[in-house]
Amino acid sequence: MSYQFKIVRRVDFAETDMAGLVHFSNFFRYMESVETAFFRSIGFSLVTRGVDAAVGWPRVHAECDYKKPLRFEDEVEIHLLVSRKKSKALSYAFVFRKLNASPPAIVARGALTAVCVTHRNGKMKAVRIPKMISDKIQVAPAAVLKRLQREK
Amino acid sequence: MSYQFKIVRRVDFAETDMAGLVHFSNFFRYMESVETAFFRSIGFSLVTRGVDAAVGWPRVHAECDYKKPLRFEDEVEIHLLVSRKKSKALSYAFVFRKLNASPPAIVARGALTAVCVTHRNGKMKAVRIPKMISDKIQVAPAAVLKRLQREK
Amino acid sequence: MSYQFKIVRRVDFAETDMAGLVHFSNFFRYMESVETAFFRSIGFSLVTRGVDAAVGWPRVHAECDYKKPLRFEDEVEIHLLVSRKKSKALSYAFVFRKLNASPPAIVARGALTAVCVTHRNGKMKAVRIPKMISDKIQVAPAAVLKRLQREK
Amino acid sequence: MSYQFKIVRRVDFAETDMAGLVHFSNFFRYMESVETAFFRSIGFSLVTRGVDAAVGWPRVHAECDYKKPLRFEDEVEIHLLVSRKKSKALSYAFVFRKLNASPPAIVARGALTAVCVTHRNGKMKAVRIPKMISDKIQVAPAAVLKRLQREK
């Protein structure tokens, strides 16, 4: 059972905008990047063939609070925690820490909720999370989630 | 005084992902796109030279709720409403309507909060919204915002 | 029979990079954008259901020469010309003109070659361009292509 | 003196398109990503403060030939070689190898030419490559470049 994962990325030039910052939309791509790595860490893919059919994880909610600027070549750690687990959906909390700062500083916090779906005849349908996946994922302990919220 | 703006875009191929949907991060780019057009409609640019210095609008909060899929070549209307106006920040509410559906359907709702800043010596500093800009922007009437929230 | 198409776009903030220019990779997205519009203008989609199966157009070659900077809010006309037509492939030439300059200036030239494919069992296979599509597309006259190359 | 560099990336979900492939424009972002890492490997940044002023590297030419599909979660090695060095410009050749194939397969080849510029009063001007940078970069031996072209 797993409830968290971390990756480190270095900001690409193409991810910046003319203000010299990482474009705010890219934080959502970073979130998905660690989500993908989290799934891989428990032996699955975000596009998983389950028992019957492939399941996917379209998002129903996404949000991000930006605290400090993140710039070209900054090293950013993206920390995912499972914040909620329902029969057909998973929610994650994210913390973005700039590592090339002393001490490392939180630059943003985010959240995603993804629903488990199958595709049939071009239509998506929400389904229960396959047991083989669900069995490997647990919600982060409340104390861990709380500590994360207080971290600066 | 202005409190809303609408643009229509057609979904580009590059904006889709392997699930056949508009990648969820692109809804944030769409929001910015109408915000830019809104500013242009009142005679300014998102990167505006004010009286003293250029002001920019980095985001401090962004969120989106996804209701229905949006796909390649769909026509989407993005509707911006000013939801809050503070001395140094503006908040917007967004509604995404798929026009090539009968009747047009809301596919997503979003929100952004942007802070007015100047750049000095490579540092950003929050500043009061220049009067010449502030004078042209007002918060949408409560009734209009409420109607938008109830719309399906 | 059609051999050209033009669209006009205004540069989005998210398309710029920290150098203040449109990121060079976005010119390829602009090319695809007018290619999509060109297909739509002759009654098809880049993802077209043909007689037997859906055909797609993966790229086998892409290139771009950058002449002048393109920046936020610039108005850019992207002009597509069909430069070559083979049984399974189409080649296009592109000219990018910045309209908010006097006179309008060529900022870039590009080229794409796309192969017509079907997807079967997760594999792509090059196929002849469906007649219903091929019949509507012709190569631009040599004189037109030459004039474009000399234009400044 | 250095003439090559390699990085390995795993394909992100957001980099795919509805055809299930890495969108062709993203290969150009991958090229820039290894170029950035190459510069870092010799002690500089793509946005380098030189003796007098910051130099940047806008592209004047970019191209890519696509051989095989690259998909979500594929591991791709991007191999940069310096193919040409002029007083104000550098050219690179790129090979993209899919590592999770046996044997690893070339999926694409690319090329970039970047010009060294300074920014003054909002204008870019081509300048000689600063000696401190130029001294650390050499063109790849002809035999190495040739071997790369023959590789399958």
Protein architecture, described:
4 copies of one chain form a homotetramer. Chain A is an alpha+beta fold and 152 residues long. Helix content of chain A is 19%, strand content 39%. Chain A contains 3 helices and 9 strands; from the N terminus they run E-H-E-E-E-E-E-E-E-E-H-H. In chain A, the strands form 2 sheets. A 5-stranded antiparallel β-sheet of chain A has the order 1-5-6-7-4, covered by helices on one side. A 4-stranded antiparallel β-sheet of chain A has the order 2-3-8-9, with no helix packed on it. In chain A, strand 6 (89-98) and strand 7 (105-115) form a beta hairpin. The first copy, chain A, is globular, with a radius of gyration of 16 Å. The two termini of chain A are 28 Å apart. The mean pLDDT of chain A is 93. Chain C binds chain D through residues 18-19, 21, 24-26, 28-29, 32, 47, 56, 58-67, 69, 119, 124, and chain D through 18-21, 24-26, 28-29, 32, 47, 56, 58-67, 69, 119, 124.
